[in-house]
Amino acid sequence: MTEARYDVLGIGNAIVDILARAEDDFLVEQQLVKGSMRLVDMTESKRLYDAMGPAIEASGGSAGNTVAGVASLGGKTAFVGKVADDELGAIYGHDMRSIGATFDVAPLVGGAPTARCMIFVTPDGERTMNTYLGACHALTPDDIDPVLFADTKITYFEGFLWDAPTARDAFFKAADIAHKAGRQVSLTLSDAFCVDRFRGDFMRLLRDGTIDILFANEVELKSFYETSSFNTALKALRQDCRIATVTVGAEGSYVVTQDGIEHVPATTVENVIDTTGAGDLYASGFLYAVAKGLDLKTAAALGSLAAGEVINHMGPRPSTSLVDLARQSGYAV
Question: Which GO terms describe its molecular function (predicted)?
Fold first, then answer.
């Protein structure tokens, strides 16, 4: 097998995040469920934008954030997602290329606008997300470049892709190309809301070997196995997965293989500002380490380090060099 050009390629929804601070009372007034993610139409997106306070715009999307983290660690990255030929689409493309990621998907012309997510961050750092997918739904198998996916060590998919049938087709095409080239395929469950809708599909992907590496948090995992017991869910996951990692917030994460389950402590963060992107950046550190041949415990620790950086400020992507932070913390990256 030839050496891959890219360490990690992310495929997912290309979304511009619009973040604003909000009090809990505001969420109640707007009938928003704290900590949730919901899909909204353009009308509701505009209504929330008009209601929110001072905001910042940041290119986001789960897989896009993960790609940004891998790039910050010094990895070679690429991203596949659909934006529109509009102002937000141009911003998104610029942001991806500015971090060194390859992003060559043709923008959508004459269709829905670029996706955006209205994110309200409460004083405890929790984020409540309201996503308008727009142009993301236009991702199709035609956007999958076989050479690109065959030339990547690990392809990383976000579960949110399952909301669009053509994006699912793109997923299967890309996964097939990756595996035929001897590469690995990974998936994040994305959100309990997502798991509830597509549990059966995700379970089949895991059990039939389409997914080599699975990412989840505690809530998603319990939803996945339809149990209130975290330990029960972990044991079930061990039977189904090749490699999986489950984050449990400040308690760290668990690395799960058929050989066993190992707990890895979290990086200590004194002041949590905004948890947006925490899971995405954890995946960055983990995937980068696996792509570089490091052991799984080190991968989980590096994931926690990256997640700890992103929750220390507003926005879903690193504000400091992760490779410098990792080296300062004693990692050989």
Answer: kinase activity
Q: Apex CA 128: angle with CA 123 and CA 134, to 5°?
A: 145
- Amino acid of residue 63: A
Say which amino acid occupies 254: Y
Burial of 65-96, coded b for 16+ CB within 10 Å and e otherwise, reads bbbbbbbbbbbbbbbbbbbbebebbebbbebb
For 92, the token pair is 């998104």
Tell me the angle at which helices 62-72 and 296-310 cross, rounded to the nearest 10 degrees: 110
Alpha-carbon span 321 to 180, nearest angstrom: 34
Q: Dihedrals φ, ψ of 37, to 5°?
A: -125, 130
- Give the tens place of pLDDT for each residue, 200-245: 999 999 999 999 999 999 999 999 999 999 999 999 999 999 999 9
Residue-wise burial string across 152-167, b where 16 or more C-beta atoms lie within 10 A, e elsewhere: bbbbbbbbbbbbbebb
Tally of residues, the chain: 333
